[in-house]
């Protein structure tokens, strides 16, 4: 027995030293404590057998409990860290796990006063050696049950790794389980009286097997060189950080989990939603998720649109245990689709109209040398050219929307736009109130402001046309108002701004409004129109990017 105990101590020290070198890798420190507990228990048993007096034997029995109680705690902490369950290894959890072992150590040291651990002892003489056998009391069985509980809890993650697709994880877990079962079986046989050891617990002898198994896992299977620790953390991180919203429901539609993105979409928090029925959190989403196929979800008080898809959750017996609802933001896709439809329809309408006019007058001009018809052809050609320029500007806006743009001083943007408009339309009086000169905005507003100011002058048919540009600064946004005394914008022309799209029977005739609305939206701003027969006021609200 002594040689076996010395071998277990040697194996434990070797594994402990190798594990200590692997710090701070997950599981390294608990494995050191595990080997220290094994070695402590083995050493205490050697001294107990070799002790000459009864008092010495009882002393070494008592101090062996330090290793006995620390062993299952270290095992569980090692498995939790090794398997990636670090959320259960915080100081609060460790303190809770150590509560019963701490009570046990205290009761062992004070057993003479209450006899909760042992009720008595028996002196046994065998082969010239004196052995001490103590009768277990109620707390002995409490700590025994607690020890096996911790051992079984640590067994669960290890069994999961036995079936891992990663071969190294399978080999590591099998070696560790072998190291667990050897002392576990030995201790069970001792407790139920199947080992004639004269009252001495031979469990430390089996530590030779467990120490060797751990040593093999460290050296042969690279226990800390190839670790499954990141798996759970990676899955959780991906779930939390995924751009799509994800909601996990049980079979009764109770929200059992959701990521932050889903909570943001539903305008709630995880703490408020968890444990509640989805019907109480978002009845509209529940009705969409429960129907067949994929559908679009438009949350209340939210301008975004989401594609809703659902997948069933099943267990290993193919039983449905819940479902996952995912929310994919398709707002930008919808906007782009609407914008392309508008571009397609308006472009076809304008070009077709101009070409029909040109063809109609070209034949007449060929036989009648009419200056009036020539002027009409020239005007339609100019309109085609202007349409092409507007389309190019819109394409530029889309391209800029995909880039990292610089910021420009708003004062410089407006000053250039006003000067250019005044040169192009000298008959229009352009007034400009510059406001603060240090406000910086997205450079995309250069195209937007230029389009608004130019349109205000170009389409102003008043006898005394004027355009006024004003700036109203705020803390986080700045407002630019462009007012004119032109004929106003017809109601059907505002369909794009009011409804976000057009229909085949209702659409605008130009790209000016589209360029303004889309450009402001892509740059993070907004636009509003007030128009009647006495004029139009366009209000652009822009985020302030800084001051310089």
UniProtKB/TrEMBL annotation:
Keywords, alphabetical: ATP-binding, Kinase, Membrane, Nucleotide-binding, Transferase, Transmembrane, Transmembrane helix
Catalyzed reactions per annotation: ATP + protein L-histidine = ADP + protein N-phospho-L-histidine
InterPro entries the record matches: 2C_sensor_his_kinase, HATPase_C_sf, HATPase_dom, His_kinase_dom, HisKA_7TM, PAS-like_dom_sf, PAS_fold, Sig_transdc_His_kin-like_C
Domain Histidine kinase: 346-546
Top-level taxon of origin: Archaea
Gene Ontology molecular function: any one: protein histidine kinase activity
GO biological process, one term: regulation of DNA-templated transcription
Record-listed E.C. numbers: 2.7.13.3
TM helices/strands, residue ranges: 29-47, 59-80, 138-162, 174-195
A Pfam family the protein falls into: PAS
Record's protein name: histidine kinase
Source organism: Haloarcula salinisoli
